[in-house]
Amino acid sequence: MTARDEILARIGRALADTTLGPTHTAPAADQTVPDAAGPDAAGPDAAGPDAAGGAEVTGGEIPRHYRTHADLDRAHLLDLLAERLEDYGSTVRRSAPDRVGAAVAEALGRRGATRIVVPPGPDLAGLAGLPGLPDGIEIIADDGLSPAALDAVDGVITAAAVAIAETGTIVLDSSPTQGRRALSLVPDYHLCILHADQVVGLVPEALARLTPGRPLTWISGPSATSDIELDRVQGVHGPRTLEVILVEPGRPGR
What we know:
By secondary structure, the protein is an alpha/beta fold. It has helices spanning 3-15, 74-87, 100-111, 122-125, 147-152, 181-185, 203-209; strands at 24-25, 56-57, 91-95, 115-118, 138-141, 155-158, 162-164, 169-172, 189-195, 199-200, 217-219, 224-226, 232-234, 241-247.
């Protein structure tokens, strides 16, 4: 059996108990599997030799027997997200709404960052006026900066579209407060301001909030990869350092 036959056979076995498309009978073992270029190559009739016995597949809805909602209250969602982000090597700062400027200042001060690029949206372009942000920090609104210019700044500050507690993932959708994808991928330091009501429990909940046609960037901790010898390298495909300011209404200012 070739690798192609084995793959198609596995697909055939998986389809035998599902409801994907009109009723049909899988081909017997001595039938020829359609060529990959043929019109039925991607369809259910390309079941392969191990689907012998004429297994019948009936049409209908695709079964979705997975969790679509996390049974966690807001406090536990935020705790779980912070735990997962920190497990990935990110830093999480939890802040009251009136202390965001101070939290940004503390993060930038510890980083030693003074030249920061932000998306063109007015919410972040006005960061320079935030209470608590010290003098000497240059806020640069992105107006189509070149990759070299983005690489020359000390970091980037963005908002987010949604965050997923269970996977420790932040999703950017290139809206005005998040900017184009290069903005969060080229600078070596990413500071993300995330609000508590943007945090959901599971991936299906996040997808329900997102527009599929938008360019989405899914971030689970700092950029990291491993070579064939399993040597871990950070910063190859994005920022080496990720910090998150989690803004929580009702959190005591301090």
